Amino acid sequence: MDHTVLDLARLTAEAVPASLAQWHRDHAVGDEIIVRGQWHGPLPFETIATGAGCSVVDAVSGLGRGQWTVRRERTLADLIGPRLRVLIVGLNPSLVAADAGVGFVGATNRFWPAAVEAGLVPVDRDPWAAFTRSAVGFTDLVKRASPRANELTTGEFRSGALRIRALVEWFAPQVVCFAGVTGYRKAFDRTAELGLQTERIGDTLVYLMLNPSGANAHASRADLVADFFHLRVLADRA
User: Fold this and answer.
1) Cα–Cα–Cα angle for 45, 49, 55, nearest 5°?
2) What does the pLDDT look like over 69-105, one tens digit per residue?
């Protein structure tokens, strides 16, 4: 069992999700990290741990401080932080994506080729380059990895919507883009249409696009390139 320590005193609350994501990237399923100190974020620390692709297996608090033992799970970690231009929200990680540590990584998924062609991200299948060089972040409506998104329940989508809304209100990206109509309708608005939505989350624009999975015959690569180019324009205007 690999135990390391993350001291909250060394980080701002806004930097903790990305720090946990980096730890997640460098460790195997089942490894554990001890997080200790005073948590100042607006969301419960357990919510941040879930977003980081982890579970809290032990927690102790007292005198304004806490200590959490956090275990890496077989899923993806959020890549989120301040001053994002675009936050991409997938439905949930596939098992292939969870094992690779890269969302939308399936051989037939059009996300990365289309995003690179549109100039939204700089490098194919490299979420950290997108995050650090293009201010594009990533999360999922549901953190539980599964072979197919149709295995998810409406309850999971609605619970995920609460987490996503709280994250967006906290970090305030210029645009949040949901990649999957069915999941968005279950989570937020059952009558939603593609494109820019009329309602925002806080000050953040909300955009809905088709699922880029190769299994989705309704989305062509050209359609996806157009979506990603539109996201660039929206972020620039915002």
Assistant:
1) 120
2) 999 999 999 999 999 999 999 999 999 999 999 999 9
Write the pLDDT tens digit of every residue in 108-127: 999 999 999 999 999 999 99
CATH number, domain 3-72, options 2.170.16.10, 3.30.110.40, 3.40.50.1820, 3.90.550.10: 3.30.110.40
Which CATH number is correct for 86-237, 3.40.50.300, 3.40.470.10, 1.10.490.10, 3.40.50.10540?
Answer: 3.40.470.10
CA distance 61 to 50: 19
Over the range 107-135, which residues count as b (16 or more CB within 10 Å of their CB) and which as e?
A: eebbbbebbbbbebbeeebebbebbeebb
DSSP three-state, residue 223: helix
Dist. CA 142–CA 152, nearest whole Å: 8
Question: Does residue 1 surpass a pLDDT of 60?
Answer: no
Domain ranges of the chain: 3-72, 86-237
* Dihedrals phi, psi of 88, to nearest 5 degrees: -90, 130
* 101: CB partners within 8 A, 6+ apart: 24, 25, 76
**CA-CA-CA-CA torsion sign (86, 184, 48, 52):** negative
